[in-house]
Amino acid sequence: MKLLINGERRDAVSGKTFTVRNPATGDVLGEAPLGGEDDVRSAVEAAGEAFADWSARNPRARAKILFFAAEEVRRRNTDLAALLTAEQGKPIREAVDEINGFANILEYYHALSAGERGEFANLRGYGRTIVLRRPLGVCGAIVPWNMPAIIMGWKIGPALTAGNTVILKPATTAPLTCMSLAEILEGAGLPPGVLNVVTGPGETVGREIARNPGIRKVSFTGEAGTGRQVALDAAPALKRVTLELGGSDPMIVCGDADIPMAVEGVVRGRFYNCGQTCTAVKRLYVFDSIADEFIRRLRSRVEALVVGNGMDRGVDMGPLNNPAGLERVMRLVDTVREHRDGEIVAGGRVPRGEEYERGFFFLPTLVAGLPHDSPLFSEEVFGPVLPIATVADLDEALERANDSRYGLGASVWTRSADLIARATEGLEAGIVWVNQHLKVPPEVPFGGTKESGIGRENGNRALEEYMEEKVVMIRL
Ligand code: NAD
User: Does residue 385 contact residue 379 with C-beta atoms inside 8 Å?
Assistant: First the structure.
């Protein structure tokens, strides 16, 4: 793999590469260039030069290229999904969905481009006033490894449709799918320099994207701590930032909930993508009145989940993506054992067997009976471990659910109109689901409150996030 700068395949200035491995087997998948600050600077120069022509094009003509790319992505779904599973670890059916999701996003922005317009006001005493919307210029897109294709789509879809040029930085453990998708966009007609991909560490490539004054906006998705650093680095140039950060989503199961449906909601909500989703169910609050039955059913369902290589048929959950993630999850569960302050209801260890020895596997895990201040409730647990608490009623559930520095997603499971009204009003989150969790279609604005981030992606105003308004006042 090479860097993609100005339509050319280049080695990094450092001449060095880093190895990308399969997290299920440890097998080497390839080498990626170890980019650095100089590579970002070259990309900024190329993107700056490409901006004049790209931004002057008709928005529909720009979006048509995204539409053609989406068709090609769908045609090549099988290969792209296999690549995504190989580098990221998720089961192949989740990878197929993610690749289709990327195509959906590009198609959505194609559709939005038709409605792109400014405003007009006939103000008495001020003349005719027109509000023009102009693209910002060169934009930076920093992507994590957990949903690389979807998150790449959330950023480049609106940025490119709005007429900006982009420098994309994938995560070091999942750069291959992003690069393949960028090449498809190029093949669909994106001119050189409009989308540039620089692989390499966050400390060099990521920080230069945040700092470089030639970049007018940076859209970052990743951990809250990294987001804070990005905001600090972006501040001197006063550039726009969108920060999509961590979450610790609560799921509240009320006494009248459809228990089998809610059990399935937890299984998908927590163990999809091996628990490595920003909007995963990360804390479960179940009403006392149904807790015994709920936990019993959940336990037998969780213990039946098949853990293995995401490429194998019938696998429900793959490995974690990287060794640091596995270590973090193991540390949290070990702490519960050491302090004896919780009951490990299911899992709680790495699976046994030869097929697991070379990967970053951990069993789907349920932990009950923890104290309120357990790190399993206060930290973002980015892996297949779910802390469960029982609550007397909705008031207690809301108090505990909102007792978090995060506020990304939340869900309530009930058929009562009164409980739905109180929970949707009371939960501190960017998105609240009722009788479902995890779904984020491109049509709705997505982002968090509190330390889960700043700004929104998606939704019908997403193009405006990548544009600046210019007012023209005409006195006749
Ligand atoms: P991370 O913060 O470690 O890395 C994210 C990206 O930032 C990577 O490309 C990384 O190389 C880069 N990076 C690292 N240090 C940087 C720096 N100083 N400056 C600029 N870039 C830097 O996050 P991760 O482990 O890759 O992803 C998991 C996190 O992402 C979780 O917290 C998860 O909740 C969050 N996430 C949030 C959303 C959302 O939309 N809110 C979506 C997916 C994931």
Answer: no
Q: What is the pLDDT of residues 392-412, one digit of tens each?
A: 999 999 999 999 999 999 999
Q: In whole angstroms, what is the distance from residue 372 CA to residue 351 CA?
A: 29
Query: Is 447 inside any structural domain?
Result: no
For the stretch 179-211, pLDDT in tens is 999 999 999 999 999 999 999 999 999 999 999
Q: Does 207 lie in the same domain as 317?
A: no
Identify whether the C-beta of residue 219 lies closer than 8 Å to the C-beta of residue 231.
no
Q: CA 321, 322, 328, 332 torsion: positive or negative?
A: positive
DSSP 3-state assignment of 465?
A: helix
**In angstroms, rounded to a whole number, what is the distance separating the alpha carbons of residues 85 and 72?**
19
Q: Is residue 31 within a helix (H) or strand (E), and if so which, with residue range?
A: strand 28-33
Residues 7 and 124 in one domain: yes
Which residue CA neighbors atom 43 of ligand 1 most closely?
A: 278
- Which residue's CA is the nearest one to ligand 1's atom 6? 144
Same domain, 150 and 207: yes
In one-letter notation, the amino acid at residue 58 is: N
Q: Coil, strand, or helix at residue 433? A: strand
Rounded distance, CA 338 to CA 342, Å?
A: 10
Number of structural domains the chain divides into: 2
The domain that contains 49 carries what CATH number?
Answer: 3.40.605.10
At 123, the amino acid letter reads L
Q: Which residues are catalytic?
A: 244, 278
What is the C-alpha to C-alpha distance for residues 71 and 158, in angstroms, rounded to an integer? 18
Domain that holds residue 137: 3-245+452-474
Q: Do 218 and 74 fall into the same domain?
A: yes
Distance 178 CA to ligand 1 centre (A): 15
Beta strands in 247-296 (DSSP E): 249-253, 281-287
Ligand 1 centroid–CA 371 distance in Å is: 29
The CA distance from 217 to 155, in Å, is 11
**What's the pTM?**
0.97
Q: Cβ-count burial of 344 within 10 angstroms (0-12 exposed, 13-18 middle, 19+ buried)?
A: middle
Read off the DSSP letter of residue 347: -
CA of 173 to the centre of ligand 1 (A): 12
Q: What is the CATH number of the domain that holds 376?
A: 3.40.309.10
Pocket flag, ligand 1, residue 141 (CB < 6 Å): no
d(CA 324, CA 38): 28
In the three-class reduction of DSSP (H, G, I as helix; E, B as strand; rest coil), residue 274 is classed as: helix
- Residue 20, number of CB atoms within 10 A of its CB: 19
Asked if residue 266 lies in contact with residue 346, where contact means CB atoms within 8 angstroms, the answer is: no
